[in-house]
Amino acid sequence: MQIRPIQPADLEDLREIDGTIESSQYLHLDQAGEGLDQSWKLEMRPLREKLIASNPMDDDVTFTLKQVVTGADEGFTLLAEHEGRPLALLLAQPVYAMKVMRILDVRVDYDFRRQGLGLAMMYQAIAQAREAELRAVMAETLTNNHPANQFMLKCSFELAGIDSKRRSNHDLVKEAATMIWYAALD
């Protein structure tokens, strides 16, 4: 097993990483009040039916990954591989205006989860952010992606906010609101 920066020759093989999401729980988001007198409550609930989603790398992440790997844009990439097979990747970019390292994607092949690959890669991204003298590492997950939310907690990230309109005007109905996580470095 080797963890190393992604090279341009690796780009074609990265789509082989099976990023399937499987979950039977979600974080139910309940909003009360209006205007500046709003409150939010999160509660773990079972999904109506088990979520099994293929979770392919979206076009924005694919484009950014290519830009970072080829040196056209600034960022940080990692690839975990075994016997030439890609098993996991991490993509992050610094956002200097906010003094944060933004994690754009972390994916571990379905057959190789729960072996510490994601954790090892996340710790390297945190170390990179410290070296760049940034104040935090940030990431986003969805309320219906229970494994990703548990992973953020395991990596000592704190929930910093919720965006119930990021993907559509009906994210709450779809049980897929965006959660914003931060790991403070100071």
Descriptive report:
The chain has helices at residues 59-69, 117-131, 146-154, and strands at residues 2-4, 21-34, 37-53, 76-82, 85-95, 100-108, 136-142, 158-163, 178-184. It is built from three helices and nine strands; from the N terminus they run E-E-E-H-E-E-E-H-E-H-E-E. A seven-stranded mixed beta sheet has the order 1-4-5-6-7-9-8, with helices on both faces. The protein has a two-stranded antiparallel ribbon with strand order 2-3. Helices cover 19% and strands 44% of the residues. A hairpin with a 2-residue loop joins strand 2 (21-34) and strand 3 (37-53). The chain is of the alpha+beta class and 186 residues long. Mean pLDDT is 90; it is low at 169-173. It has a domain at 2-30 and 51-139: Aminopeptidase. The chain is globular.
Range of strand content: 35-45%
As laid out across the biggest beta sheet, the strand order is: 1-4-5-6-7-9-8
Biggest pleated sheet: 7 strands, mixed
Rounded mean pLDDT score: 90
The CATH topology assignment of the domain at 2-30 and 51-139 is Aminopeptidase
Assign a percent range to the helix content: 10-25%
Contiguous uncertain segments of 5+ residues:
169-173
Shape: globular
- Give the end-to-end Cα distance, rounded to a whole number of Å: 32 Å
CATH homologous superfamily designation of the domain at 2-30 and 51-139: Gcn5-related N-acetyltransferase (GNAT)
CATH class of the domain at 2-30 and 51-139: Alpha Beta
Number of helices: 3
* Rg calc: 17 Å
Give the topology string: H per helix, E per strand.
EEEHEEEHEHEE
